[in-house]
Amino acid sequence: FIESKILHKRMRYILVNSRAVYKQMTEEENVKKEQLKLIYNSVKINNSKKKYPKNKRIRVIFLANLIPYKNHKLVIEACRDIKTLNFQIDIVGDGDKNYTKELQNLVLKYKMKEKFKFYGKCRFLKKLLNESDIGILSSNEEGFSNSILEYMAKKLPVIATDVGGNSEVIKHGHNGYIVKKGDYKNFSKFLKKLILDSNLRKKLGSAGFKIVKEKFEVSKNIINYYNFYKNLLINN
Fold first, then answer.
1. What is the CA radius of gyration of the chain?
2. Each residue's pLDDT tens digit, 117-153
3. What is the rounded CA–CA span in Å between residue 159 and residue 135?
4. Whether the Cβ atoms of residue 216 and residue 40 lie closer than 8 Å to each other
C-alpha cells in the first residue's frame, strides 16, 4: 500500500476499470481525480443464438481463481437449502490446493458431491459457458469482473456479491441479482428463483447481453484506449 502511494505520485495518469476503483483511489490512496481515467474491461461478443432446453439439469457456472477471497464457501452454504433441486455447480479455475481441498471437503460434509464439479484450469471454457444457464460470483472483493462480462456475453443471468464494480454492470432484477458480501441466504433465494424459472433466466440473460453489447464490447474499448493514448501524445 505504501509502495503504491509512492508510485501514484510519479504517475501522470492512472487507468482504472471501475467507478469503485476510482473511488478507492481518490478516497483511500489520495490520487488526484485529474490523474485518473476510467476505461472498463471488455469482452468479445458472439451473436450466436442461445438454446433454452426444458426439463434438464440446470448448469450454474462459477468462473474464478480458487483463492479464499473469491469465497466459494458462500455458494456451498447457499446450496444447502436447495440441494433437492435439479442443478449442478461447475467450479472453474485453478489456485490454492489447500483451499480447493477445503472446499471439496465442505461439499462432502454437506452431502452435495453430486451438485458440485471442480474443473480446475479448463481448456474447454467456451463449451462450458455455452452449456451454462446461470453465472455466479461470490467474491469478498473485486475490481471489475471479467467473469461477469463473460457470463453476460453468453446471455446468462448473473448473481454476484455487491463488491467492486459488480453493481456497475449488474442491475438488480433487470439482468441479474446483487447480494451483500457474505449473504448466503439471499444468494440461495435468488439462485433458487433462477433455477426454477426458465423464462426469468431467458429474460434476465437477454437484458444482460444487451448491456454488454452496448457498453462493454471489445471494439468500443479499443476506441477508448485509442483516444486516450492519442490525446496523451497530442498533449505531451
1. 19
2. 999 888 889 999 999 999 999 999 999 999 999 999 9
3. 7
4. yes
Calculate mean pLDDT across residues 74-93: 96
The Cα 236–Cα 231 span in angstroms is 8
In sequence order, the 6+-apart residues with CB closer than 8 A to the CB of 49 are: none
Q: Is 148 helix (H, G, I), strand (E, B) or coil?
A: helix
Residue 26 has which C-alpha cell? 481518490
Element (H, E) at 92: strand 87-92
Q: How far apart are CA 178 and CA 158, in angstroms?
A: 8
Per DSSP, the three-state class of 67 is: coil
Q: What is the pLDDT of residues 31-40, one digit of tens each?
A: 999 999 999 9
Could you tell me the three cell numbers for 49?
443464438
| Residue 152, all three cell numbers | 453476460
Helices (H), 110-183: 125-131, 146-153, 166-169
Decide: residue 127, CB within 10 A, 0-12 exposed, 13-18 middle, 19+ buried.
exposed
Residue 177, strand partner residues = 159
Where residue 159 falls among pLDDT bands split at 50, 70, 90?
very high
pLDDT confidence tier of residue 55, bands split at 50, 70 and 90: low
In angstroms, the CA 6 to CA 154 distance is 41
Task: Report which of 126, 121, 167 is spatially closest to residue 148, judged by C-alpha positions.
Answer: 167
- Can you read off the three cell numbers belonging to residue 14? 492512472
